[in-house]
Amino acid sequence: MSTLKELALIAGGELIGDARLDITGISEIQNGKQGTITFLGNPLYKKYLPETKASAVLTNDRALLADRNGIVVDNTQLALARLLEYFKPASTRISGIHSTAVIDPSAEIEPDVSIGPHVVIESGVQIGQNSTIEAQVVIGQNSRIGQDCLLYPQVVIYHHCEVGSRTIIHAGTVIGCDGFGFATVDDVHHKIPQNGQVIIGTDVELGANCTIDRGTIGNTTIGDGSKFDNLVHLAHNVKIGRGCLVAGEVGIAGSAVIGDFCVFAGHVGVAPHLTIGDRAVFAAKTGVTKSLPGGKIYAGMPVREIREQNKRDAVMTAVALLKRRMLKLEDKVTKLYQ
Questions:
Q1: Are residues 322 and 288 in the same domain?
Q2: 170 given a catalytic annotation
Q3: What value does the mean pLDDT of the chain take?
Q4: Residues contacting residue 203 through CB under 8 Å, at least 6 positions apart
């Protein structure tokens, strides 16, 4: 339990109302609970504000509070993240190395590393200080894991891969599997060996069940600070820049080069050997079929700047309405001459 004043300091905002008000947690605005603080960042949820039972509101608009207790901030999402971290339930960190873990004697494991049940760590592996390796993780030969990393259960990291410090990898993700490479001769598909690596930077987060293929000759790379949702696939030799955000079910084909701070909404597909500039943004289900400059928002299949795509969508809607009107007119004319 904390006072509203203490939470305002944590959130970095302006306290409005009763500084000594006790707050026990955070609740959704539509399901607000007495004694909690709720948040209002999306205008769509403003309709729930008059009836919420929450004792305080976190918002970026002071006028919305009226006579309510609350905290006013510039960035609601950032402030909410700080409060969620503060109220985060305590989790019990694995302590030491579990007796069932299988660790090659040549592996170099720094102090304070925690290793869970049935983990397999092969020869030549290096794991940095204070990292946590949860149950049934497999780390292949000569791979390196940085400091303060967290690998959730059943993560698989193949041989000769590198994971930077403070990286989080969620359950079921596979790093360093073979890229999809075959040479077809006389209807026989001959496998092309995938001899490159996967190099992941620092402060990266990969969601559950992602697959990151190793390079064929060079490396597949993910830049510092990039964050992936669940079910993302990177093919061999893809280069992802710094600070990119990649939502669920995005697929990026081989040798594509993605600039810094790009954003990919859900189900975007990127064709192979393309180059995307810094800070490009792609709406959901966009099909990226050509190289594109950064600093713009794109949508559609094939891809276009979103304003152009919106115009085309509006035209198609108008055509559909016109077709319905024409059918009605034809029906009237037909009845007149019957």
A1: no
A2: no
A3: 94
A4: 164, 165, 166, 167, 224, 225
